[in-house]
Amino acid sequence: MNKLLKTFIVVLALLFATNYTNAASLDTLIKKSDLNETATIAISVKDAKSGRTIYQYNEHKLMNPASVLKIFTMKTAYDELGKDYSFQTTVYADKNNNLYIKLGADPTLSSSSLKTLMANVKENYKKPVKDIVVDPSIIDNKQWGIGWMWDDDTNALLPKYSPFSVNENKIDISIEPGKNGRMPEIKNRSPYSMTIVNTIKNGNSNKIELYRMPWLSGDMTYISGTIKTSAKLKLPVDSPQRHFTNVLGSILASSGIKYTGTIKIAPVPQKLTKISSISSAPIDAILADTLKSSNNFYSEMIFKTAAANYTKKQGTTEDAVKMFNEYYSDIKSDKPVIVDACGISRNDLISADWITSALNKIYNSNNAEEFIQLLAKPVEGTLSDRLLNISLKLRAKTGTASGISTIAGYIDTKSNKKYSFAILIQNHTKSTIDIKKFEDGIINEIYKM
Fold first, then answer.
1. Within the chain, which residues score under 70 in pLDDT?
2. Phi and psi dihedrals of 366, rounded to 5?
3. ∠ at Cα 73 (419, 142), nearest 5°?
4. Alpha-carbon dihedral of residues 153, 157, 163, 169, nearest 10 degrees?
5. pLDDT value at position 126?
6. Overall domain count for the chain
7. Is residue 67 domain-shared with residue 109, that is, in the same domain?
């Protein structure tokens, strides 16, 4: 046996022994954890370049991916829309002096940007105005995902999504402790009026609860608990359309744009005169925020807009799912079931093996590097206080819901390998801190491979 062959055999044996040792370490971590007794754990690790399986555990179980799903829905949207895409909000005028506002489903549209748009309209259009007509037809007006929880509708992380979107469909409210024996005071400074039932009391700490009872009245918000110091909260609106028209009306007035008619909803007709428009930041900047901060609202709006581009008609989540399934149709793994973009729905089901297969597909795509950079590294977003010891070696997306914790992405290992990995944990009763520590232990073992 020549020296070269001997060297090859020794190196191969060392690599096998190393992988076996680390795989054994992962097995030990899982089996020694009490999580393994009551929760379901699924793990998959693959070589990102070759697709070779490095480690798997319960890899074919269909589980809820939570926000890890955003990696794959947003990659589909990114490729469909293109990296230079930006959301447009445009104002036109017809020969009868009606102004038309063509909405572009811009998830980042704010009161400030609307004010800029209307200031431009005021500057460029000097004729008297009759009606203000809003065209929301770019995407449908279904505002809540299949399988989403009804009691999440006051959760600031889950505002309703709609073509009528401004300020992420949330309003600012402030709560001040009561003085001289009076009840605490709740203030809403938004043009959007809503009924707030105030049952909050002065107390020794701020423990504030917000909820609605849609079986009684959808647009009635109950605020209870205790308050000690001033508090500011973001509250999702119940009616995005009314919220948008209220904000728009206020901005029209402050901009000095007077109209003799009303604010109406209708499609923009052909052959109008363009007055002004505003653009969002480029899609990659918005996606970076979506993925690093796990913005559910952004992801749903982007997914539907990509569907509109894909079908050349009004964007819907159903068509976005078809786009998603076509994009990943070549993956030979357990077929996923998805019903939304952000992974909030309990109807979403994906296996760890499919996730690493899809990660490998992304890694081998033409724009892999630019997209992977949109994922968080430690010190950023949802990884801001995790895995800091390997901050330059990791790009990943986390997911968290009640009883669910997930993380998936790419890791550069100590042996200079690029691995894709997925960790899914479901039906656990641990604290978020404890569950993330367990995940971090798994990832650190993968890094040693």
1. 1-22, 218
2. -65, -35
3. 160
4. 80
5. 93
6. 2
7. no
